[in-house]
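Technical appendix A lists one of the benchmark inputs used to test multi-chain prediction within the project. The record comprises two sequence entries:
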Amino acid sequence: MTDAARPREPHWRQPYMKAAAGETLRPGGFMLTDRAAELAGLAPGARVLDTGCGTGATVRRLRSRFGVFAVGADADMGQLAAAREKSLPVLCADGERLAVASGSMDMVFCECVLSLLPHSRKALMEFLRVLRSGGYLALSDLYALSGASCGSGQSCGCAQGAFGAGLLEDMVREAGFEIVVREDHSRLLKELAARIVLAGGSPCGTPSGYVFILARKKDDRHA
Amino acid sequence: MSVIRVPEADAGGWSCDRCGEELKPTPVNLEYMDSRFTVELPFCAKCGIALISEELAMGKMLEVEKLLEDK
C-alpha cells in the first residue's frame, strides 16, 4: 500500500492532539458540551450517557459541573482503563450496542464520534432506544463541504467518514428525533486545525465544517 | 485550553538584546481574527517581550493565519 492510499490515523490517536485539543480531543473542548447541557436544562441527578467517552473527560465534566449521574461508553479498552484509573463509571460498548436499559437515560452525548462509527444510523437508533421519551441527544460532528477533496491525497482519519451537509440532520430526524437546535461551529474546527499546526501536527486537508445539533426524542404518547 | 508547546520555539541559548536576561519558556497569548492561542514562547520576564523567530513567523504562524482566513 502506498502512503497516498493508506488511511491516516485519526487525529485523536496522534501524540500532538492532547496539547492541541486538551482532554476532550475535539473542537471547542467543553464549550458545546456545556451549551447542550444548559439548553437541555440538565438538572442534578439526571441520568446521562456519553458515547465514545474516551478517557472520561466529558463524564467528569458533566458530573462536576451539572451534578448529573453521568456514565461513559467506549469500545477502546485502553481509553476505558484510563477512565477507570480516575474512578469514573464507564462501560465497554460501541455506539451501536449500548449495554443500557431502554428508556433509562435523560440525555445522550455523542460529540465528534458518530462519523467515526461504521454504522452511524444504527447508532442513532440505539441512542433513541436508551433515551426516555422527551430525552435529549447532543450531537456534534464534522460535515464535508460539497465538492471538496483532501489536498494531501490521503484518506483522512477524522474527515473520511464526515457526512454531507444536511445529511446528519436527515439521519437524526429519520431515527425518530426532532431537532431543537442546529448551529454551525466551523470556526471551532478551524481553531483546532490551527492548534494542531502549532503543536507540530498536520491537519487533514479535506475542507470540512462542524455542526452542533440538540435533538429530542419524540414523546411516545403523542407519536 | 491547554498551553501549546511549539517545537520551533525553543528558548535554549537565547537572551534579551535589551537587558541581557535569559529568555525562558513562558505561556503567551497569541490573538488573530478573534481566535486566541496560548503558546509557550521564549520570553524575557524583565522586559515583557516574547521572541518569535523568523522560522516560526514565516512557517507555522503564517499557516495558522491562512487557516483562519480560509485561504
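Residues 144 and 208 of chain A are 5 Å apart (CA to CA). Residues 1-6, 151-155 of chain A have pLDDT under 50 and may be disordered. Comparable benchmark entries are summarised in Table A2.
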